[in-house]
Amino acid sequence: MRIFVLLFALFFAGAVHAVEPSEMLKDPVLEARAREVSKHLRCVVCQNETIDESNADIAKDMRLLLRTRILAGDSNDQVIQFLVSRYGDYVLLKPRFMASTYLLWFGPFIVLLLGAFVVYRRLKGTPVAGPAPLSPEEKAALEELAPGERTP
To answer: Which pLDDT tens digit goes with each residue over 136-146?
Structure first.
């Protein structure tokens, strides 16, 4: 029962923010911008966590770098571009729609269509055969076992 309660609590727990008070900007407007930008950035060593949710050292460095760029006067897009140029497109939680990411965007649909095609071919391609007719020997043996019954 305890494990169930623990799993329930973990499942419904909100996102835990790893941003330390020492990292936060003193200006609440700039801090809100930093939080907004960080929603779009992935920790490069974690699996699908934003940099605000991750406790990894690299995520802390990315948060500090992000806030430094905001303090320097960069726009949100400029901050994101800077981090993408430094860490690559993987840092974006929502990848861009470009030729190198077509498989990422269309891959699930292609797999779904291929699976539906395979299921369709399997169901359509193999007709269900009825039982084979009885041979004259089988009919005679059946008549011996059950005299008077009609055989097909």
So the answer is: 998 888 888 87
